[in-house]
From TrEMBL:
Stretches that traverse the bilayer: none
Protein name: GTP-binding protein RAB5
Keyword Flavoprotein attached: no
Matching Pfam families: Ras
PANTHER family: PTHR47978
Length: 208
């Protein structure tokens, strides 16, 4: 029987970098030129099938990028297994904002969280302000995954989520993970064959 796991994933980044469009492309393979800004956070799910037959279900929290919602972010990245921090390749300031989100995750999220830095809007390469070299160098220095995507064309979108699924710990039981109490079920993938319900705290709605 193939193994099935579920993980909590959070998207962070400045407003208008395309986080919601990225998720919409991943979950529904759709793109909308006129998406309204997310209020608070949106919740979606999507499954990825790996080559070895393992199925990974992502519980995705798409957070709002506006500054007035920043204080809510810890509720969404708390106990997250992975994070996608998005910037707009046509706006260098959005990479600086992504750096600040990554610093916050490194300080406050679980130490074993998998972080991917994602440069969105690769279809607008003619207006590029952030070079691939600059972003990749930063990602390498910080030990992050990195990729460029286009939510509009779909380029690279499935690939980055699949890469994250492959990077997540799919085999280590909670007792085998370092970090003591913090390495409990909320941080380890839930084997859906054995435990159909999400681990406590992993899929609880936030009272926002």
């Amino acid at each position: 029987m193939s193994k099935q796991f579920q993980f909590k994933l959070v998207l962070l980044g400045e407003s208008a970098v395309g986080k919601s469009s990225l998720v919409l492309r991943f979950v529904k393979d759709q793109f909308d030129d006129y998406r309204e800004s997310t209020i608070g956070a949106a919740f979606l799910t999507q499954t990825v099938s790996l080559e070895d037959g393992t199925t990974v279900k992502f519980e995705i929290w798409d957070t709002a990028g506006q500054e007035r919602y920043k204080s809510l972010a810890p509720m969404y990245y708390r106990n997250a297994n992975c994070a996608v921090v998005v910037y707009d390749i046509t706006q260098s300031a959005s990479l600086e904002k992504a750096r600040s989100w990554i610093r916050e995750l490194q300080r406050q999220a679980d130490p074993s969280i998998v972080i991917a830095l994602c440069g969105n809007k690769s279809d607008l390469a003619a207006r590029r302000q952030v070079t691939e070299e600059e972003a990749k160098k930063y990602a390498d220095e910080e030990g992050l995954m990195w990729a460029e995507t286009s939510a509009k064309s779909g380029e690279g979108v499935n690939e980055i989520f699949t890469a994250i699924a492959k990077k997540l710990p799919l085999t280590a039981p909670p007792s085998a993970r370092a970090g003591g109490a913090r390495a409990g079920p909320a941080r380890t993938g839930v084997d859906l064959n054995k435990q159909p319900n999400a681990a406590p705290g992993q899929n609880e709605p936030c009272n926002c």
